[in-house]
Design a protein that fits this description.
Oligomer: single chain
Largest sheet: none
Number of helices: 13
Number of strands: 0
Order of helices and strands: HHHHHHHHHHHHH
């Protein structure tokens, strides 16, 4: 595990990485479904908080594997087996999502998370043994991750209030480990490979929203009522998902990873972008429930479950990759689009999705590249 060439030409996601991502489809789906149920039942605050806490475990384990793989993917037998161990941990995390979000019981989630992270410790120890150049960095990673995992297990035995506070303390500790480790000798990440991996995960999350829109059609055909509303929700939901895809991939991303600081900003900012994309699919489902009178939440709250995630996603991509390439008019157009999307929260019924779709289209138009930049 000597480290791959960070300037390797044509570096693309490997079959193992794509297989690894498939497991995360399950984890994202489970957390999104639970968020949908809690939002529809009127437990918006608890649902969103639980979702964000569970999503951290999903996002952080995926991100750590991705950055490790871009630098040290040897694709030998031990590497593959340790990756399969991490995949098993993801499935355990997914199975504990409902208990964590609804009953604040993070026991199963913690077990799955620790399985994933200890496999990563083993990978870093392999680097430390075989690569003198990165030995200190690898040992910092291995030691830091191990200490934090011990703390995660001990947190399960704390009183509920202290344990809740401890969760966010340990999140900060997890985030600090790469900053501390990479400050010694930076690992050889490949910008093109990293941004492709982030793009693929975005597609997974947007795929969940496509599934939600498809559910609207299924519900319309099964119920035989509110057919026009559900078909409108489906069409508008597809427009929003397509617009989110369009905006995310409207610029090349690899230019934003040029240093340790920029890579950390890029990587960590995606927590909000990814979480928003996952929450959007739950919002579509909630709007469907409202239209079929299967939700107990207020219409205003239901609208927010869709509009706020879409607005956060667009704002996140705009700030991270688009803002500096737009004219003042273009930037103003994106911000106006976000205002339109948020304002849609206050509209009745299906009009929430229609107005949010219109706002997303405005954002797409405003974020387009100048003609001089087109190929």
């Amino acid at each position: 595990m000597t480290g791959r060439d960070p300037h390797e030409s044509g570096r693309a996601a490997s079959p193992l990485e794509l297989f690894f991502d498939l497991v995360f489809v399950v984890a994202v789906s489970f957390s999104s479904v639970q968020l949908h149920h809690m939002e529809a039942d009127g437990h918006l605050g608890a649902g969103v908080l639980g979702y964000l806490m569970v999503f951290f475990a999903v996002w952080w384990s995926w991100m750590n594997f991705t950055w490790f793989a871009t630098s040290f993917d040897t694709d030998d037998v031990p590497y593959r087996l340790l990756t399969f161990v991490q995949m098993a941990g993801v499935l355990v995390v997914a199975s504990g999502a409902a208990d964590a979000m609804e009953h604040h019981d993070f026991t199963v989630i913690t077990i799955g998370y620790v399985i994933m992270r200890l496999a990563m410790v083993t990978q870093w120890l392999r680097v430390a043994v075989t690569t003198p150049r990165f030995r200190v960095t690898a040992l910092r990673y291995a030691g830091g991750i191990l200490v934090v995992q011990i703390a995660w297990v001990l947190r399960l035995f704390l009183p509920e209030t202290i344990g809740f506070i401890g969760f966010f303390v340990l999140v900060a500790a997890e985030i600090a480990v790469p900053v501390w480790a990479e400050s010694h000798t930076s690992t050889p990440w490949n910008p093109h490979h990293i941004t492709e991996r982030y793009g693929l995960f975005t597609l997974i999350l947007l795929g969940e929203s496509i599934l939600a829109s498809a559910n609207a059609v299924v519900e319309a055909l099964k119920a035989g009522e509110a057919v026009s509303e559900l078909l409108t929700i489906s069409a508008a939901g597809l427009v929003i998902a397509a617009g989110m895809w369009w905006i995310y991939f409207s610029r090349e991303h690899h230019h934003h990873i040029t240093s340790l600081r920029s890579s950390l900003v890029y990587g960590y900012s995606h927590y909000f972008i990814f979480a928003a994309a996952g929450a959007f699919s739950a919002g579509i489902e909630v709007i469907i429930d409202i239209s079929t009178h299967h939700a107990e939440t207020a219409p205003l709250t239901a609208g927010a479950t869709l509009t706020i995630p879409v607005a956060i996603f667009i704002l996140g991509i705009w700030a991270l990759t688009i803002r500096r390439t737009l004219t003042p008019a273009g930037n103003a157009g994106v911000l106006i689009a976000v205002v339109v999307i948020v304002a849609a929260t206050f509209l009745p019924g299906v009009w929430v999705v229609v107005a949010a779709a219109a706002g997303t289209v405005i954002a797409v138009v405003a974020s387009r590249r100048p003609v001089s930049e087109l190929p």
